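User: Design a sequence. Structure:
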């Protein structure tokens, strides 16, 4: 079920009414309703996906309880590695089986040995990368005794399957989200209104920005051999805003929806395209994944505490694994490695934590220096996104080589340039709104709050009107494929 679908527009009010009017006096009933609603939401794509998430829930719930009772170090490690093996095993099979098989065959062919093996027609369960990491955070934290295991199976099931963030995050830590299922929740009008505003902004990002940018990004990338350099630059820019509008838009809708039900999810995006260096970008982009890898992979490997070689090794490991998490393609691995190369100079010179505050905080405009670094960081990010979007390494290299040719100075040529100009104007409006709201939790979190009611509602109706006018073909969220 898509957030930007009629199905969800009907589903959400029904669950909301049942939650606050039919089950509000009984916490277990509320949690059970969340489980049923979440399984309905998830099973809307394919009911078979439910078997996997239910099995994962049972395994990690059971292991959590056994970890609490077990004193033997060896047995505790065995339980932890069982959870890791089961969860990553499912993820590896469904997401990476064909990738490893194809590369295994290619490697042996290189040495003159032909191996015959058939690829499998595997359906990738929606959101498996997200809920796998979410459940792993639970068993790892219980193993480290940072979290008490739960004996409430319904609450744990609700935590694993919580529908607002189930299929594309934020990737919640058990220590943050699970305890919220233990506490009685009461309706908070202020939180609900703020949630609705964030949902509206998320829909604007997805439908107006991401989906319209996708139309031209797809057209240009899919026909890049016939495009000149300037058109390819536009294609990369369209994709840059497509992936941001799409993914951060999903997070906004997820966080806003959660607030309607009395839950607080972690922030997942913090205006990353206003970053002044790559380290700041990664503190602001897909925060839940970046911090997950930091806490459960980078720090256990030694983090930045060792010598230069360890810092280099750990940086490449975390970025390459992050790239591979996104998909079974060498383009994602190159994308991750490229970001590691961007990041290393900052780490090795101890400049990776220079920009912790919001750019131009309390000011209308950034300084020339800040603006220059923002442009440089944005340019490096756009370049890296080319690998992320390309079909394969050959496609990426040919795309980039054409950009750095004399055709870069030609006039962009592609279908429906007139409509694309409208999208570019909307992008400018979007950037301005993001800039003015960069110190808030989302762009319009403070916009119009002190206006008189007619003007405030005028803002909402204006955004809704643009959403309806610019609605095109319903498109899935990009990160559903990851």
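Assistant: Done.
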């Amino acid at each position: 079920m898509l957030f930007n679908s009629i199905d969800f527009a009907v589903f959400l009010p029904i669950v909301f009414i049942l939650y606050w009017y039919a089950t509000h006096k009984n916490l277990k009933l509320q949690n059970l309703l969340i489980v049923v609603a979440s399984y309905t939401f998830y099973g809307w794509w394919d009911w078979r996906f439910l078997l996997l998430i239910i099995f994962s829930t049972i395994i990690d719930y059971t292991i959590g309880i056994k970890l609490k009772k077990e004193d033997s170090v060896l047995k505790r490690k065995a339980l932890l590695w069982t959870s890791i093996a089961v969860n990553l095993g499912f993820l590896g099979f469904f997401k990476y089986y064909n990738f490893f098989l194809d590369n295994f065959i290619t490697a042996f062919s290189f040495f003159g040995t032909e191996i015959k093996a058939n690829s499998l027609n595997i359906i990738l369960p929606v959101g498996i990368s997200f809920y796998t990491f979410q459940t792993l955070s639970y068993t790892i934290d219980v193993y480290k005794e940072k979290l008490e295991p739960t004996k409430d199976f319904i609450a744990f099931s609700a935590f694993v399957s919580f529908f607002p963030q189930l299929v594309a995050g934020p990737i919640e830590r058990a220590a943050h989200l699970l305890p919220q299922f233990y506490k009685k929740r009461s309706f908070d009008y202020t939180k609900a209104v703020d949630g609705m505003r964030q949902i509206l902004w998320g829909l604007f990002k997805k439908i107006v920005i991401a989906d319209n940018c996708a139309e031209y990004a797809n057209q240009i990338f899919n026909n890049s051999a016939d495009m000149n350099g300037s058109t390819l630059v536009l294609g990369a820019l369209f994709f840059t805003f497509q992936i941001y509008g799409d993914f951060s838009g999903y997070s906004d809708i997820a966080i806003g929806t959660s607030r309607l039900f009395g839950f607080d999810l972690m922030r997942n995006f913090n205006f990353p395209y206003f970053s002044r260096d790559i380290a700041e970008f990664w503190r602001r982009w897909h925060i839940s994944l970046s911090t997950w890898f930091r806490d459960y992979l980078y720090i256990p490997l030694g983090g930045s505490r060792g010598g230069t070689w360890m810092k280099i090794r750990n940086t490449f490991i975390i970025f390459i694994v992050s790239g591979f998490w996104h998909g079974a393609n060498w383009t994602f691995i190159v994308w991750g490695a490229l970001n590691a190369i961007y990041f290393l100079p900052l780490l090795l010179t101890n400049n990776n934590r220079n920009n912790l505050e919001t750019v131009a905080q309390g000011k209308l405009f950034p300084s020339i220096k800040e603006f220059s670094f923002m442009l440089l960081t944005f340019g490096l990010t756009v370049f890296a996104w080319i690998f992320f979007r390309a079909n394969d390494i050959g496609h990426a290299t040919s795309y980039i080589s054409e950009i750095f040719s004399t055709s870069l100075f030609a006039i962009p040529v592609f279908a429906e340039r007139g409509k694309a100009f409208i999208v570019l104007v909307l992008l400018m409006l979007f950037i301005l709104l993001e800039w003015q709201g960069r110190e808030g939790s989302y762009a319009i979190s403070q916009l119009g709050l002190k206006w008189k009611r007619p003007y405030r509602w005028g803002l909402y109706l204006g955004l809704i009107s643009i959403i309806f006018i610019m609605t095109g073909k319903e498109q899935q969220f990009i990160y559903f494929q990851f």
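The two ends are 16 Å apart (CA to CA). Residues 229 and 405 are 7 Å apart (CA to CA).
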